[in-house]
Amino acid sequence: EAFTGPPLAPGTGTTHRQVLPVLRVIGQAHEMYILAEGPGGVYLIDQHAAHERVLYEDIRRRVASRSVESQPLLEPEPVDLAPVHAAVIEEQATALSAAGFVIEPFGPRTALLRAVPKLLADRGQGRPGDWLIRLLDDAAERGRKDGWQDRLLYTLACHAAVRAGRRMTLDESRELIRQLEQAENPHTCPHGRPTMVHLTSGQLEREFGRR
Question: How deeply is 176 buried, as exposed, middle or buried, from its count of CB atoms within 10 A (0-12, 13-18, 19+)?
Fold first, then answer.
């Protein structure tokens, strides 16, 4: 599967944009970290966390501009719902629709899933109904009210992001770094985990006994 990322729109200016140094990709370690060199040292970039950040900012902008793409299912899928799932779908119908889901009632404990966000259709593994249930579980874990839509978006980005254990070519790694450089908050994923570790030239020299 070729690595492709969505085109990123320019920053909206609503937040202070962080800037990464210019990085040159030199490889991948453990099919998990992209290795790059830049001014003043070496950088290890977590490929999953970095892609999560890129996807999250992209879908957040698309939701704000009402331009999220949906992928219709070839056959609508009935999804059995627990009471909490049914309550979330009813309470958060607008947020789910804005994120790209098309869901219709299909009985007291069943929903009919007709379409899913395109980025999830492009990358998700398994049945679309299972994606919906996992997203509802993950995003509702800390409550269904304040901040629920944002949790839905970063959970969606997490499920769609490239996984650890995926071998990436140099071109794929360069494209991901290019997209990360355009992010407003490139240093952390939406959950607050760092996207990269910087080993300075001074640290490396000390480790090798050069100073």
Answer: buried
Expressed in angstroms, the distance from the first to the final Cα of the chain is 45
Residue 37, CA distances (Å) to 21, 26, 134, 136, 163 in order: 10, 7, 37, 39, 22
Say which residues have a Cβ less than 8 Å from residue 137's Cβ, sequence separation at least 6: 85
Write down the mean pLDDT value for the chain.
88
Helix, strand or coil, per DSSP, at residue 208: coil
- Distance of alpha carbon 209 from the chain centroid: 40
Distance CA(8)–CA(55), nearest Å, equals: 9
Residue 141's CB is within 10 A of a number of other CB atoms, namely: 10
Q: What is the pLDDT of residue 14?
A: 40
State how far the Cα of 183 lies from the Cα of 49, in Å rounded to an integer. 13
Burial 57-66 (b: 16+ CB within 10 A, else e): bbbbbbbeee
Strands (E), the chain: 24-29, 33-38, 41-46, 70-80, 102-105, 110-117, 196-200
d(CA 193, CA 34): 16
Judge contact between 159 and 124, C-beta under 8 A. yes
Residue 180 burial (10 A CB sphere; 0-12, 13-18, 19+): buried
Among 11, 56, 47, 52, CA closest to 166: 47
Whole-number Å distance between alpha carbons of 179 and 182: 5
- pTM of the predicted model, to two decimals? 0.86
160-175 tens-digit pLDDT: 999 989 999 999 999 9
